[in-house]
Structure formats: structure tokens, C-alpha cells
Prior knowledge:
- This protein is α/β, with parallel strands linked by helices.
- Helices cover 44% and strands 16% of the residues.
- It contains 9 helices and 8 strands.
- The longest helix has 14 residues, at 3-16.
- The mean pLDDT is 97.
- The chain binds pyridoxal-5'-phosphate (PLP).
- Residues 29, 31, 52, 76-77, 159, 189-190, 205-209 line the site of pyridoxal-5'-phosphate.
Amino acid sequence: MSLEDIQTRIRKAEAEAGRAKGSVRLIAVSKKQPNERVEAVLDQGHRVFGENRVQEAAAKWPEFREKFEGVELHLIGPLQTNKVRQAFDLCQYIHAVDRPKLAKTIARIAQEEGHCPGVFIQVNTGEEEQKAGILPSEADDFIKECEGLDLPVEGLMCIPPVEEEASLHFALLAKIAARNGLEGLSMGMSGDFEKAIALGATHVRVGSAIFGERNYE
Ligand SMILES: *Cc1c(COP(=O)(O)O)cnc(C)c1O
């Protein structure tokens, strides 16, 4: 696979779902990828990337930004409250807002800094113990709480359980978003982004299908 193949598949999935061309944003997930691979994708003109750790983002993106204009960085992984300020400096979007303490910290730092990254609320659609995210039954209240804190809530995000049919989770996330008047849906990864697009994804997070297998050393 390559960036171009994935873009082609996204455009095709948009068309098949009767959605406008370009309505899905491709977040190229560059976590744990060698810099040469990331730079190759930047060289091809892509500017929207995702990282799941603040520390890793801090280690590579300031330098890439000096070389390439217009980078848009999405933090897609769990965020500790003591890293929020650093996340503000590095990222334009935070995808895994999942608890009141984090929402309140983001709101406070937004006041202090005078700006705030766009926010996605992570929903634990599979109600998995080990997974981050607000439970579906608590999502409506938490969304209202975030909006009450004046966070710029773009939409919702989920990571379906690996052993279940992803479409059920994408449909659930879309339903929760719709009843709360939210448009953004961050869902779909290398193995299932076309299904996510069919169910309304506005942001797909694709890593290995673009860059190849991750380096876990
Ligand atoms: C790593 C990661 C992805 C990308 O996964 P691939 O299967 O490589 O496409 C997407 N979303 C999150 C939250 C991730 O941590």
C-alpha cells in the first residue's frame, strides 16, 4: 500500500456511500515509524498526521514542521493531564478526551493560553475494561459537560474491540454523535476504514496501510 492507494480507496468509499468528495480527512498515523517513511509521505504533499504519544510527537514534529509548512497534527492516544500544555503546543486536535478531569484541565489551559485544539470525545463503544473512553451510557452527559466548559468539540472517536464486527461500533458512535448534534466522527483504521466511511467517518486514522508495519523495538 501507499499514500496514493489509500487516498484512492478513500475517494472510492466516499463515492459509494454517496458522500461528497473530500468529506473524509485522512490522518496518517506516524507513531513508531522511522523518520524516512514519514518524510517520504510529507514529500508527497500530505500534511495531516497522527501520533499517540505526546513525548514521541515532541521528539519528531518540531523538526518536520521547520521543513514542511502546514502540518496538522492529531493526538490520537491517551493524554495525561500533566502533558496537556505540551499537547497544546504540538497538536491541532486531541482525539481521546474521555474523562472530566482531562476536560477540565484542557479548559483551564485553553483559558491561560488563549487557544484550544479541536477536541474529540473518545467513547468506549465496546465497554472494554482495559480501554479508554467514556461509556456509551455516560456519553451524552459528558458531551454536554465538555460543551459547558466551552471546549471546541468536533465530534466523537472510537476504537472497536478487535474481535468484534467494527461496523456495529461505528454505527453506535454515529448514533451518539447524531443525537448530540456533533458532525465529527474519528473512526476507522487500516483494516476497516472503508466500513467507517460507509457509516459516516469524517476522520480516518490509518497507519500501517500507508507506512508499513510499525517498529516496536
Ligand atoms: C495506531 C493507531 C491507529 C492506526 O492503526 P493502523 O492499524 O496501523 O492503521 C489508529 N488509531 C489509533 C488510536 C492508534 O493508536
